Amino acid sequence: MCWTAKSFIRGLSCSVKYYSKDNHLQAVCLYSKIKPEKGHILAWSRSPCDSTVPPGSILPWRFFSCKEGTKVHCKREKITSRTTSELLYNDLLKSERENWNAISRRYKAMARRIKGKLEELHNKYTLSLESPRISVGENVYFEENGCIFLSKADDDKGNVHILFTAEDIGFSDAFIQRIRISPDQRYLATSLKSEHSEEATCVIIKLGGFPTVEEVIPNVFSFEWATNDVLYYTSQKNLKCQNVFMTTFTNQKHTKLVYTEQDARFFVDIYCTKDRRFLTINSNSKTTSEVWLVDCKHPFKLPVLVQARTKGVIYHVEHRSNELYILTSYGEPAEYKLMKAPVASTGMENWQLVYALEEKTKLVDLEMFSDHCVMFLQNAGHLHLNVVSFVSHSVQSIKLPTWACAFALESHPEHTASTCYFGLTSPIHPPRHFAYSFKENNLIERAAQEVPIITSCHTARLLAKSEDGTLVPITVFHDTNSKELHRKPLLVHVYGAYGMDLNMSFKEEKLMLIEEGWILAYCHVRGGGELGLRWHKDGCQHNKLKGLHDLKACVMLLHELGFSQPKYTALTAASAGGVLAGAMCNSDPELIRAVVLQAPFVDVLNTMMKTHLPLTTEEQEEWGDPLADEKCMKYIKSYCPYHNIKPQRYPSVFITAYENDQRVPLTGVLRYVQKLRKAALDHASRTGEKGNWIPNIILDIQANGSHCASSWEDSLNEVCSSHG
């Protein structure tokens, strides 16, 4: 998920500082989740914070946590009350910061030690990893530290040319998010995004002997070249993307609007098919899709509809040999299938089945080549490939190493390539590079490996039986040499929303925790996407409580099997994962000792009743519409973390929030913290519990940053400034 380093580094220490006798949780006080380097174009994780489309992906990827949006100005007659409210807000903000500053000073020495260890691991496992490359003919484009470089594919001397530097045009605090090269390589389009903002800026550079900035377009989300000098892009405003524009770079430059989405539930992005035959304008809600085609041979013609949106049907389009290959949930079972239809007759009645996935199989991604289609799949926690041959009409299934938990796809592979390159990783395994040869029909691990293999960690996959009998997967990591696991600290991860998987990519701090004797558990509860589309559907709207039941079953099974015990167990979640984590704090606080939350969504009901917020309507497909349905209102109220706080013994809680977060505004987090503290103190006063029995509820408010990820360097700087 989207974590700054200091959040997790300081979280557990402050959450459990009253429990001095049990030092397991204190010992980890400064471990963190570390952000990818600024220089990595392809450091994509499918998280609600990461809005970059993975190269090659034609899957639904935009899943925002439910949150409030931009401020809405009150009417003139409410100025007085608004001013009073703002004064109270500012006083509370100041008080929370003073409280945090006093607490954080206690952990300076530990912060320095942890920072040194994290830097050591980062240099050993991550720093040496090569930035993703984009190959176009004999040229190779790549980005590092806010600069875009050009090199030759056959150049062994390391000669590179600088094409662009973000700092030179006044974007010193921005990172490069996306790069697109025009077919004739005369233009390069790139998006720059600040870590403190949701919007990106698109910069078009004219290449040649002396590259120059041709145009700067603000508030751009996605963009693709239709031809050598015609660019399509989507504009973003208030977290929404509903307009598609076309701009030309001919002698007579002009820009025009070519598509507008009228339904607030839908979000629009642009994709280019691998053979560059079509651009697709994709309009997606959480459950429904509609695609329009732009003919790259005739980019000025109006887009053509593939299939009108049908409620509950998701579909995405690729192209090969005058046929559309359609990845869709259409038909039974309602999981992804690969279908095809002639370009001349794209309606649903003409869709023919090419390949259907097995039950409870998650399609992670799909890559199209001229004669093959590679499906990246996950089943019961194990990863594998299915390679569909369009020539022999066969399907080859390739098993992958059991330690692998996540794919790291290569950027922009050549459509005609005879080899598919990809990486495998896990929370405690740095990415390792693999290649599948279509000609040889075999999988090989690429020889040049910059990092050592992690051999001292055991990976276990468990199944917990939930309240209704459903088996819920858990992935567990621990040191193979650890003994008396029931005495070891346990960190439980959960998300369970939007059909999103838990982030299982490598993080230095996860390996660090393992080395310090921790057990890591990832609970793949319903509402997430680990077992396919149905798994998500079974955990959203009126099924949201199933995710909570799943989480409880997972934690109980871990303890029953001897993985730690409640007094050594911490629960961590971010964004929409805060719903289930916060709900467990209310329903089963005895199962956990501490909770660490990052920009948590903890007030579902109030947020979903505010229709003026930019994402409320869009997110009704995930949470329901409490204004239109009284049953929905009562159901949300039954699990909403904020509305179910009550006087009882709570675990200690550490929360990191962002002052300018558009997705989870600070006001809601402040309300939650104040109510939680009051309930904990009320319980202590009623029962006479003092000292060790009073949970420590800490809020760290970041003046900078946003709901999305920050860089490695900034994360470490935050640690230094907070603890130095």
Automatic annotation (TrEMBL):
Keywords, sorted A to Z: Cytoplasm, Hydrolase, Protease, Serine protease
One Gene Ontology cellular component: cytosol
Main location: cytoplasm
InterPro entries tied to this protein: AB_hydrolase_fold, Pept_S9A_N, Peptidase_S9_cat, Peptidase_S9A, Serine_Peptidase_S9A
Annotated EC: 3.4.21.-
Gene Ontology terms describing biological process: proteolysis
EC supergroup of this enzyme: hydrolase
SUPFAM superfamilies per record: alpha/beta-Hydrolases, Peptidase/esterase 'gauge' domain
Domain Peptidase S9A N-terminal: 176-442
Residues annotated as domain Peptidase S9 prolyl oligopeptidase catalytic: 505-680
Subcellular location: Cytoplasm, Cytosol
GO molecular function, one term: serine-type endopeptidase activity
Role according to the record: Serine peptidase whose precise substrate specificity remains unclear. Does not cleave peptides after a arginine or lysine residue. Regulates trans-Golgi network morphology and sorting by regulating the membrane binding of the AP-1 complex. May play a role in the regulation of synaptic vesicle exocytosis.
Family per similarity comment: Belongs to the peptidase S9A family.
UniProt protein name: Prolyl endopeptidase
